[in-house]
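JOB MANIFEST
job_type = single_chain_structure
chain_count = 1
residues = 312
[input]
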Amino acid sequence: MKAAYIEDFGGPERIKSGELEKPEPGEGELLINVDAAGVNPVDAAVVKGMLNEMIPANFPAVPGWDVSGTVEKRGHSARRFEKGDKVYAYARRPEIKHGTFAEYIAIPESYVAKRPERLTAEESGGVPLVGLTAYQALFDAGNLKEGETLLILGASGGVGSMAIQLAKWKGATVVGVAGSSNQEYMQKLGADKIIDYSKGDVGEAVRKAVPDGVDMIFHCSRGDSLKQSADTLKENGRLISITNSNPDRRDDVYFEYVFVEPNAVQLEHLAELADDGHLSVHVSKAYDLGNTAEALSEIEKLHTRGKIVITP
């Protein structure tokens, strides 16, 4: 099969494109013919070896954890899906070896869900990691409730875009923070109040927009936005981050760091929400396998609106 892979760690230039052995599904596994694979900042970190202590690589290693595709073959005891079913999954395993930047991937069927019928293959390929990250951050870790006010730092990226829509589905008021070029985009996604971090201190803008403070901050950005806005949290507020495992915070603030985990049940719920019109995905660009290095270079800039995908 065709694949994009690495034989040692380094920058995106380490990515090679070529032929690797097509995997066979083991017991309880499905072989999926990949239609689209979402590209995420963590994929660039994997290629650089930044996660090797936590998730070691076995070379040659194919990166990529998002997949939307078609069931090609079922392993022994894998009977939840039929050949030809359109599915999607967050395919992170305990090691970096068989990723989704390839024509095929074999993964446990327990990771897999039917993909949204309302979304295209490319759009579905951009959902799993960012959708599950936002879902687990807002609802599992943050326990977001109807009527609460949520501040999202980095609201125009893949995770932030999902978080806006999930929070609005839940009935929360959303304050989105992003750059000047993404203000209209956040508004279309449903953000109630929009803040441009390039126009000045984010905290001052949040206090002006929400004088009573916010119930929760979802931190999915880099830079100084969290430092500037941390004191906008109400007493006993919640701070959930996916980019900083130990940020400065008040003693009364509940904090949790989220590293997304595979969850097929939550993927099924995300598919239902998408098919009911509550979730959409903006695919900013699609690359083929031969341009995987370019895709990783682009995602490293952390200024992507919505999602980048690879289509084998």
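[summary]
The mean pLDDT is 97.
The chain has two domains: 2-126+281-310, 130-257.
exit_status = 0
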